[in-house]
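thought: fold this chain, then report.
action: predict
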Amino acid sequence: MAGDLKGILAKNITYPDNATMVITLNSGTHWQDGKALTADDVVYTYQLAKTHSDLNYAPFWQYVTSVTKKDDQTIQISLNKDTLNGGQVKHFLATVYILPQHIWSSRESGGSLLQLVDTQPVGSGPYKVYDFNAQRVALQRDDNYWGKGVFGTPAPAFIVHPIFKDNDAANLAFQTGDIDFSQTFLPQIWQLWQDKKLPVSTWFKDAPYHLPGQIPMIFLNVHRKGLDNPKVRQALAYAINYAQIAETAMSRYSVPVNASMIIPQGGEQKFYDSSNVSSNGWKYDAAKATSILDSIGKKGGDGVYVLNDGTRLGPWKAQCPYGWTDWMTSLQGVAQSAKAVGIDISTNFPEQPQDIAQLQNGDFDIAMYSGTGADPASPWARFRDVLDSRGVPPAGQTAFWNYNRFSEPSVPGLLDQAAAASPADQPKLYAQLDDIFRAQIPAIPLEYRPLEFYQYQEKGGSTRSG
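observation:
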């Protein structure tokens, strides 16, 4: 949340210059089968993405020229000076799990590694797989864990993860004390201790109860007639009742979102210009939305605006995966707000695989998704997700960011400057990117959301599962 790195396998990381990182492993690191975990495993894991471009961390090599072993406990990473971006490299250091070379090297000849299901995984953490089935995954504490001297011995001998059919089933199990902690979206959690007097808690006892870590937003297809007009997108931004979304869809777990790609707390707070956002951003103002629409068209007999060129504002569908209940409620609020000012939007909730495929292929009107959450690369990565057209294929092919294929010529240069800039210079560059976002509005933030929902039994609950 703070945007920095805290090592687990790594004891420390140093920076001899702005294009070099040196990582030192903790002493005595080993795998759960007893074999030593060394720099060879780290180098192997990252090299794997160089030879297997279908791995999700293959973009690591856009920012790095080499990963080399200096000795058994030391790894040197040389950054690509043409695409200098220490934040993105740290993102991969924080999110890529190191693999045991002595196991995975023999698996490479079997085709795509993505097809492999490892039913007997060997890790390096304090818990190993005990058993698994369709109802649960059970982990057993590894009493030979190398990190006991560094991090201590975790108390539970077993951790059992039940598999529920949906959030409602998981939330009921939490309320009855059958699980000790959970990460599901549990609406109105304060009622559990205020009304039901249950000994449960989450991050905070007062609103917003959780820590903001990402910004769910709606991507607007800027190539759809009507949505290709920035004034229409601006009117929609003013039309949405963000306080209502925070209260209902997010169950008070978010404050009303701001007109910015920067989270105003945690590690990104130093980049957030509240004065600029307040002066140049939008907030819920239905009258302002109507005024903008009046300046570019007129309302038809059905109550929906028609632009001066004859383009009717809708019908458009706003979509997210079925079952993502907080997002579904958010989009129902968007549709309601839009119709109130004369924009014809309805909701559509396909199953997740269909929704994600349509999102990535650019086959949507309005689609809800999140940019990169709080991590060492934010807010750079979030601006890339929303504004950068580089590396994004045409509609009909799979994209992993900029799903609506927005393009603005000045963005790539600003992103490159921000990635390589000193901490003192980054705020003004992010401010320029935020200004472009507010001027063009290719996406509209709807709420703040935690990276993980988190609630727990204060008195230990069942002590059986989590």
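thought: worth noting. Residues 325-341 form the longest helix (17 residues).
final: tokens above.
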